[in-house]
Amino acid sequence: FAASCLLSISAAEAALMLMLGAILWKAFTSPEGFAQPLKEFHANPLALPLALYLVAYVFSSIFSVDPRLSFSRLDTEIIKALSAVLVFSAVARNGRQKAAAWFLAGACAAALLGIWQFASALLKPLNGELPRAWGTMHAVSYAETMAIAAALAGALAGPAEGRSRKLYIAALVVLTLGFCASLSRGPALNL
Predict the structure, then answer these.
(1) What is the DSSP string of 10-61?
(2) Distance CA 87, CA 4 (A)
(3) Could you read off the pLDDT of 40-80 as tens digits, one per residue?
(4) Which of 13, 51, 134, 164 is a plausible cystine mate for 139, CB 3.0–4.6 Å?
């Protein structure tokens, strides 16, 4: 829940580290060792694109106008990529529906907060700027988190049936509205 709700960056980072710790614990205690987590990592459809994204980010940072500023944001980019890989790794296995539900619940809470921020700002004089949903972080990072969660909701809605399918579709709608309320161009192009 804390990994996706984004009410506290420290709590989100701690939740991601716990997820990584659980995967490493499984690797150390299972008879297969690291073979199983590596197999799951290779099977993760996000692994290669996100690895290429991080390589491109480092490459563009080296040749940017201000490499110091670009590299200062590298930790945020790594956290976003790691969160996408960890979330899909944690919930893709059988029996992980509870982890998916908690992650989506946190993301939906953040999306509802963003929708409320956007809607309440529209009621005030705009002063030439459109309001943006941001949750408790930068609007672009908020939008990227909404995109990760929306992709997860869509992926889980496909094979689900009955009430679960309706809940995943409802989560997808809320997350998409939260994403749109951020007015972020970059994450929209990345989708």
Answers:
(1) HHHHHHHHHHHHHHHHHHHHSTTTTHHHHHHHHH-TTHHHHHHHHHHHHHHH
(2) 10
(3) 777 766 677 777 777 887 887 788 788 887 777 776 677 67
(4) 134
What is the three-class DSSP state of 122?
helix
pTM: 0.67
Per-residue tokens: 83: 């969160």
> What distance in Å separates the CA atoms of residue 131 and residue 128, rounded to the nearest whole number?
10
CA dist list (Å): 50 to 9, 96, 114 = 21, 22, 25
d(CA 88, CA 156): 10
d(CA 85, CA 90): 8
Q: Tell me what pLDDT residue 2 has.
A: 56
Question: Tens digits of per-residue pLDDT, 20-42?
Answer: 787 778 778 877 777 776 777 77
What CA dihedral angle connects 63, 67, 71 and 77, to 10 degrees? -50
